[in-house]
Amino acid sequence: MASEEPGCHKNGRPRTTRVLVLNTGGTIGMKKTESGYQPKLGFLQEQIKRLPMLFDQEYVNDVVDAKSNDDLAAEASEEPETKSEFTDEKLEEIPMPVSIHGVRILYYIKDYDPIKDSSNLTIEDWVTIALDIKKYYKDYNGIIVIHGTDTMSYTASALSFMLENLGKTVILTGSQVPIYEQRNDGRDNLLGALMFAGHYIIPEVCIYFNGRLYRGNRTTKVNAGSFNAFDSPNLPPLATMKVKIDVLWDAIFRCNNNKALCVHTHMNPNVGLLRLFPGITVATVKAFLQEPMQGVVLQTYGSGNAPNNRDDIISEFKKATERGVIIVNCTQCIRGVVVDDYATGRNLLDAGVIPGSDMTPEAALTKLSYILSHKKLTDKEKRELIKQNLRGELTVAQSQEQFSLVDSEFIEAVALSLHVGSSEEMKYIRRALLPVLMCSAASSGSVSTLEKLLQQGADPNGSVNYDGRRPLHISCMSGNMEVTEYLLSQGASVHARDMFNRTPLDDAIKFRKKAIVNRLVQAGAILNKKSTEIAGEICSLAAKNRVDDLGIWTLAGADLNVCDYDGRTPLHIAVCRNNIETIKFLLDNGVDVSIRDIFDNTALDNAKSQDLENVVKLFNDYIGMRVVRPSA
Q1: The whole model's pTM is what?
Q2: In what residue span(s) does the Asparaginase/glutaminase C-terminal domain sit (predicted)?
Q3: Would you call 395 a catalytic residue per the annotation?
């Protein structure tokens, strides 16, 4: 079956395709009872036969009246033969009306017994589903799995790894409201899943919900009370059901090796999810990482950050990875990617934690279970596989070399492929492509590419990416001095702001690029933050005893005497935390020790009230030196 919309046979009869529906349970087929919604065997089929878009009664009547019709027999002979398992189980054939594409879908529902709520499913149930898909794989054009919504993303992710070399469409679907209710989403979800499974070859494990076909291992349930229950935060839908069916064929993931379907059934159960939260105890982390735990999805803050002032828990992560536990870093955010640009993320990398890119927790967990079950692989090989894109579950960072060679021939090739000839049209192409290429070149550190792009008319200040960042922002974030120097020499503005109102200097400070900060200040960059913002940042650093970062802020021109909402300076904060290194740094940089907070206390008063004799001595020595200096 081609990957385009199929049509009728040459004899004018509709083409028929067969779809198997594995009904594991879920809301879609539940029946209302005195004790609430409950699953019932055979109930889904009963309700489907009341829906004309899902059941063609006229066709059934014609088949009964024309069992001996030669044309019908000839048509049937062109389809896959029904195997003995199919006949023995007596699965009822349910015909759909002929679609606008000239296809009649015949589908067969296999009820699992018992039908389960998805919250009760386990790895053993995933194995059962996978083995059934393998069992009936060659007899059907596509397979649908009816499933409860609560754990649908987990099952879809698991199946995507278990079904190796998948070459047919597998779709999970369900509903938020039972299909028999007057207002329900089950009818459209089942109809859409059948349309895709019966019309297209999309060799992935997908989820179809609310008019969208998603890659299953990219999904997560985002709403418990809406028909729009699922989302694919970091990847657009593979297809959407509009007036016409719109399939993004370029986005479809296809396995590279042409091998037969193989089902991997030995999943490793010793995996888990650990979500960081402020104040998490080391005892909790230690207990979670104990044997038999072998794989952990660590859900961190933001872009993969964890507290870098908690050596106790970082140490536990390091101990775990050293004894062979694979820990994958995934963000707690719905959208975004884990990166190692922040100090609070790099400490995890140093502890052996693997960045999970933009994988969902569901995908990362099931991927761990899958990879850890391959006993013949070494620990190093397993860790490498975690980073690889096995089933389209993550976005792999592009290598820098891919952006190293860009010249005018590229622009001309694009224009030629678009049949562009006029100078005005060429201008629009350059305007669209050059900013993207400039930012890519800055990211990859290719000065030669930047030179060529500028020769073609690129503007170092007019080239922005999707976040409004200029090439200078990007080079400062990465700490590439060569690119930064070149851009500054070409007139790149140190005052340019992105959509978050951040300057290149702000980014250099944020990513701790001290040399870049110094160069930007030399070029005239200034801090344009509110004093309250600066106070919050510096007081936080003082509390954490991060002297190096305080040095970067000082280099950028920050006032070390700024006060927080209580009128407390960084010196007050450092004294109360007994952070000797920070206190020495602040005193050496000439902070005002006479500033009083709203409680009328100086930092020295705080030291005396806490009996910090070593701190009091530091202050006395500092004050004494300042008194002596004028007469020296």
Answers
A1: 0.63
A2: 270-383
A3: no
